Amino acid sequence: MAITLKDLLETGAERLSLELLWGEGHLNREIEEKALNRPGLALTGFFQYFAQRRLQVFGLAEFTYLKSLSSEDRAARLREMFEKNVPGVIISRNRNPLPEIRALAEEYKTPLFRTTMITCHFINECTLILEELTAPHERVQGTMLEIMGIGVLLQGQAGIGKSETALSLIGRGYSLVADDVTEMVRTGGRVTAFAHELTRYHMEIRGVGIVHVPSLFGVSAIRRDATLDLVINLHPYKNDADEERTGIQPGTIEILGVKFPYYELPVSPGRDMANIVEAAALNYKLKLLGHDAAKELDEKVIGTFLRKAGK
């Protein structure tokens, strides 16, 4: 999937402390390679292996070198780089661009950015964002929470009580990631969930309206993102005989090619769904630690029958 400078700015402006200095009309330029480049060798005139398809990051070393040159030499070295049609130039450490950089950016219609971050930290974080933007992505209906380190996605039909259940869990000290609509991105074998930028940290409670979660419960009640571990579907209660009673063989659901444990929880008057969801998440955490209550009970029952049959 092609990434543009506009995508990067919209997604990472806050995380990268990124400011556009020039080039608003040219943000449709594509970033062809996810890695970033520091053009130190290029500024000395060596372009044999110059990574011209990457974003160019000017740090302390590049600035110090450029300032050691005369204005004519500085402009000549920079022009050679801009002639390669690089997608964009980023200046770290909140430095003001040298006059030659600004002039050449305008001449070659190359967007110019500035960040307050240290160069190495910016490169690391920006690379992560570029990975996220190019990774498989999916938008799913559901409310995402983190419960004791377990990422839980609550799904179910409209009005079933997903947000109300989430609100109760937040009141118990757990964290909201996204309400109603959750963005999913896969990196390797892990799926990370997060909220859309516009709705982040907000919830819709029927009869109340939109609420801002950190204002009500504090900043500890929110998470920017969380790894998905468990999917729970809330549905109207139908027939007790149709419900899972042992949990020996839990269902699975596939999201972005990765399979996750899947639980169907019936909703009926008097059931404390927040308590049940909390128990499901903690039970899953116990399984990760090697303690499976359902299998242990099943083995005890079978062992008891075998001992009686042996008599």
Describe the structure in your own words.
The structure is a single chain. Helix 1 packs across helix 6 (119-134). The protein has 10 helices and 19 strands. A hairpin with a 2-residue loop joins strand 9 (143-147) and strand 10. The protein has helices at 5-12, 40-43, 60-67, 71-82, 99-107, 119-134, 162-171, 213-217, 273-288, 293-310; strands spanning 3-4, 18-22, 30-31, 36-37, 55-58, 89-91, 112-115, 137-141, 143-147, 150-156, 175-178, 181-187, 190-194, 202-205, 209-212, 225-227, 230-236, 251-255, 258-267. 28% of the residues are buried. The protein folds into 2 domains: 3-134, 3-Layer(aba) Sandwich (Udp-n-acetylmuramoylalanyl-d-glutamate--2,6- Diaminopimelate Ligase, Chain: A, domain 1); 137-292, Rossmann fold. By secondary structure, it is of the alpha/beta class.
Strand order of the largest sheet: 11-9-10-17-19-18
**Structural class by secondary-structure content:** alpha/beta
Tally of discrete structural domains:
2
Using the 3D structure, state the CATH architecture of the largest domain.
3-Layer(aba) Sandwich
* Strands, total number: 19
Largest sheet: 6 strands, mixed
Shape: elongated
